[in-house]
Backbone:
């Protein structure tokens, strides 16, 4: 990552998703997970926690039991939002993290990016499933507004605790129909995507942090068009693609899942995380992939 302020550098990581006092409700309700046929009946079902996004605030419970958790991000705002998860080690706080984001240089070693739901459009929702260890966390939104200021800098950050809990938590993610591995600098699919409700496992097998943004391309537009629009086009005019799911920034070895309903059409996978060497978004180094979801029978 370059020496530019971290908040500005991380703008590239979130730009792909741009486009168009808390009550802290308790939402830890068991839910039916989207698992592949043949998964063990004894597998622990993920706990579902609702994260509500507004302009510019994230609401979620103050405490979540450790284990496999599905975050359901519901966007009630007028702008696109995400819920990037960061674990804060060494007793650090949300205030420490905000201060670090304003300084030049790479992220501090005590801030661990662990995924979370990537961007969702207004009046839409998305999910992401992760295995969360006990500790101090923040959920935040790095997506910039029309003024190019990341929502984090407008107060869109919410601390929460992941507690040890007393019941079974488990650490294994449910079975998924598809797997995407994140490499330096490519996406490796276990098989072609097919129409229907899909649960996609995302694994970061590269040495650098990566994210997965899945977008549906507008007719006649390319994934490169979207990358240019998001990073150098000042996000003017209609976006060449719209996000439909994904997993936020994860470090090497990170794993997460997301659920998506795929219809026939052209899609793209892209990573906007700044490179450790030159600060350029990873898609500039080739980390983008166009895929076609063919209609049944083709």
Residues:
């Amino acid at each position: 990552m370059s020496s530019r302020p971290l908040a500005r550098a991380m703008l590239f990581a979130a730009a792909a998703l741009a486009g168009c006092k808390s009550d802290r409700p308790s939402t830890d309700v068991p839910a039916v997970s989207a698992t592949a046929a043949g998964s063990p009946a004894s597998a622990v079902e993920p706990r579902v926690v609702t994260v509500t996004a507004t302009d510019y605030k994230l609401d979620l419970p103050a405490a979540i039991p450790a284990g496999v958790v599905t975050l359901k991000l519901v966007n009630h705002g007028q702008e696109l939002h995400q819920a990037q998860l960061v674990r804060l080690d060494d007793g650090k706080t949300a205030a420490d993290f905000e201060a670090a984001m304003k300084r030049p240089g790479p992220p501090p070693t005590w801030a661990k990016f662990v995924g979370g739901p990537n961007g969702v459009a207004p009046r839409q929702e998305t999910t992401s499933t992760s295995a969360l260890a006990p500790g101090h966390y923040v959920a935040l939104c790095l997506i910039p507004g029309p003024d190019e200021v990341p929502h984090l800098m407008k107060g869109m950050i919410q601390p929460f605790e992941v507690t040890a809990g007393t019941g079974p938590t488990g650490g294994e993610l449910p079975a998924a129909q598809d797997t995407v591995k994140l490499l330096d600098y490519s996406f490796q699919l276990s098989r072609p995507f097919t129409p229907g409700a899909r649960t996609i496992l995302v694994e970061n097998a590269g040495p650098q942090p990566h994210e997965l943004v899945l977008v549906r391309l507008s007719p006649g537009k390319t994934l490169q068009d979207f990358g240019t629009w998001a990073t150098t086009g000042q996000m003017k005019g209609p976006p060449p693609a719209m996000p439909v799911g994904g997993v936020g920034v994860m470090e090497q070895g990170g794993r997460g899942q997301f659920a998506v309903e795929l219809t026939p059409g052209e899609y793209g996978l892209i990573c906007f995380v700044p490179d450790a060497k030159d600060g350029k978004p990873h898609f500039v180094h080739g980390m983008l992939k166009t895929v076609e979801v063919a209609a049944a029978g083709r």
